[in-house]
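Section 5.1 Outputs to date
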Amino acid sequence: MKTLIKQTPFRLIPALLCGAALCVQAVHAQVTLTGTNYTQNFDTISNGLPAGWSVRTNANLTSLGTPASLAGSGTWKSGNAKFGNYASTVGNSGTNYTGSESTTIQGNTTNRCLGIGQAADSTFPGDDPGAAFVFQITNTIGLSNLMFSVDLNMLGVQPRSTTWTIDYAVANSPSSFTVLGTYSDPGVFGTTTQTYNLGTDADNQTSNVWIRVVALSASTGSGSRDTFGIDNFILNYAGPSIPTIASQPVSLTNAVLTTASLSVWSSGTPPLYYQWFDGGNPLSDGGNISGSTNSTLTLSQVVHTNAGNYTVVVTNNFGSVTSCVATVTVVGFAIAPLAPTNTVASVPVTVGLNFIDNQTPVTAVSGTSFNQNILTDANISGSASCNSGTATLTPLAGSNGVVLVSLTASDGSFFTNTVFPLMVVPSTNILFNDNFDYASGSVTTNSFGIWNNHSGPAGQMTVTNGALSVSLSFDEDVNALLVGQPFDTNSSTVLYSRFNVKFTALPTAIGAYFAHFKDATASGFAARVWASTANTNTAGTFRLGIGNANAANASTAQFPLDLSLNTNYTVVTRMIPSNGICTLWINPTNETDPSVTAADAVTNPITVVSYAFRETGGEGKMLVDDLAVGTSFDSVIGTVSSIPLYIQLIGTNAVLTWSSSAFALQSAPAVNGTYTNITGATSPFTNGIDSPTKFYRLVH
């Protein structure tokens, strides 16, 4: 009798020595999947393990284990067969076995399974725990939706039981595994069929995919161990598919300088590759084109030369598909963006207009004002000729603030517009003037370029109901350029700022600065106005201070006045560019009113170009309004005609009356003392004459 050994490219079929002799088993090469399924019934394992299958000992959570050998044929109750070739639970006639069948019947059964009789002897270490049945797949390139079913056979029911874990790994040399489920000893002979889905993690993988049935924990109980086997392993999967397009790109009509986006929705075995074409010519990223090799093609700021017939070819490793044609039509023209401009009240200002990509001459320009109290529509005039035009704007006498202006141009059939801000100041001594009369929302967006972000997340500082909202909850810093800037350290100009502020939440004791003059960098600051609860005499109040240094230190000069929440205060600062010294007033009417001047050293004097507000933790929450920056105290405060304050003795009360609700009543304990607003005081105001001596004044 001769023993034959046959060699194939995938496996070695070893010699099989009958009886109890050891059957030497080579580790077979992995399986390369084809079609849409793989089936293994183990009926031929008398010739050796099928390709891709191995049995192992010493397996654990991080290791496949050590390759082992089949011990030949075994019986269900032999208890010492180790890994072997066993009869399955169904006989040749299709009848379910009971588990009591004889050795002869088991040996004559052609329906085989791969099993193990775990043992506790030194000749077979590492099986309890550590025994594993392992299936190795070369890769899953082009395959998806992998799921398998397997018969888990309880063959020899014994007092000692093992729990088996079903898991998988994706790697050429795996060190971790994903658990799919477990199988515990049911205590009776028979088959349990279980189904598992590997999920998307195993789809289209270039690495090996491993599937295991493994004993990760030691058997429980005492006495002999179970005999366990696996059978009828069926793996199903979706095979590779060429790309298909589920949603075609849609034709577009765009005005000049708008953005056109073409998208395709496709499916197929990944990876998918995209290439967009214009009239059959392949596109590449650059200029106003992006996404030429993505599912979405973006044409930013289109012009007429971007008009065309666009297609996309979607490709994978198995084929390609071409989309329908999407036509991009470009119409009209655009007005070149206009920068913010400024003028003095009642003084006309003319802005030049340039028209972009107009194919026909532009013939008309008209305008609309967003604030008729500053600039009326009637005071906007315009003209155009071919590729350029002008618009003249004349703000009303006595007006001030920022007004948004919309200019519309037409070539007779197409109309387009642009919006820009016009800042109107009451005199040439005013360098900036803003009442924050923008739509509620981001101040940098809704001011159309008056305010710009220089630090922190853009869009956080907002306008709320006509006031600038500055909050400790956010971190944006914004600034606005001054007319006539820069003001360098050789300048003889003195800079003043004025704004109204109402705090709605207290700062911390240390506090933080929230307003300042700024240079052209993101960190050159001066005249930092600070808010803090330090040194207050009354709980629930705060104070303001100012510092000279271009550094984030606390103020060195604090105004000695407790301020209340939800109360409007007028804050004035002075900054002298030539020496950097800064001064602060609260609710002043003239420059000789009480003030504080910063005492810290001037470090790194700056060239001023803008005024800024800052959001940061510690500063509290506030609403800022009526900002003015100028070159004199009177220019930012304004000239206010005085009105008389009348005092009349009525009974035991002194009654104060005045004629204008625009004025606030203030009091002080001494004529030259610190005056504070009397909250809620309106004319007539009654004060008992037996109260401590007070001095009163009206402020605007």
